[in-house]
């Protein structure tokens, strides 16, 4: 990726860059780290909430589990355990959904 030093755009795509190195059009696929991060942000949003977003989030994490990094898996399980212990994991129906993630293999 080459940046036009005057406009700050990618020369190939003439798009503004997120930073000096990243043009999302040169890299149309998010990196594995980027996907991990987005799933983790969604998880943080959903944990403890009482909304239909919880089941979507739990299902998505289960579906994506094998592709997540060990670090992300550990963080997710750790935060679920903490939320369950402190009573911040929502209603019983939601708590049972989060517990399904704890049963996944590391
Ligand atoms: Zn580009």
Description:
The chain is mainly α and 106 residues long. It has two domains: 1-28, no CATH class; 32-102. 52% of the residues lie in helices and 0% in strands. The protein has four helices and no strands. The longest helix is centred in the last third of the chain and has 17 residues, at 70-86. It is elongated, with a radius of gyration of 18 Å. The relative contact order is 0.12. The mean pLDDT is 90. The site of zinc ion has 7 residues, from loops.
Q: What ligand species are in this complex?
A: zinc ion
Detail the poorly predicted runs.
Answer: none
Structural class from helices and strands? Answer: mainly alpha
Work out the number of β strands.
0
Percent of residues in helices comes to 40-55%
Can you summarize the main beta sheet?
A: none
H/I helix tally: 4
The 3D shape can be described as: elongated
| Global mean pLDDT | 90
Strand % is under 5%
Quick recap of the structure?
This protein has four helices and no strands. The protein has helices at 32-46, 53-64, 70-86, 92-102. It is elongated and about 55 Å long.
Which features characterize this protein?
106 residues, mainly alpha, 2 domains, 4 helices, 52% helix, binds zinc ion
Spell out the blueprint of helices and strands.
Elements: H1 32-46, H2 53-64, H3 70-86, H4 92-102
Bound molecules: zinc ion.
């Amino acid at each position: 990726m080459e940046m036009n030093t005057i406009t700050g755009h990618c020369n190939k795509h003439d798009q503004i860059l997120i930073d000096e190195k990243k043009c999302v059009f040169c890299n149309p696929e998010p990196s594995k780290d980027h996907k991990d991060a987005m799933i983790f942000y969604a998880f943080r949003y959903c944990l403890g909430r009482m909304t239909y977003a919880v089941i979507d989030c739990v299902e998505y994490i289960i579906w994506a589990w094998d592709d997540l990094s060990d670090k992300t898996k550990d963080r997710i399980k750790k935060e679920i355990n903490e939320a369950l212990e402190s009573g911040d994991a929502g209603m019983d129906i939601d708590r049972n959904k989060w517990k399904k993630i704890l049963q996944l293999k590391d």
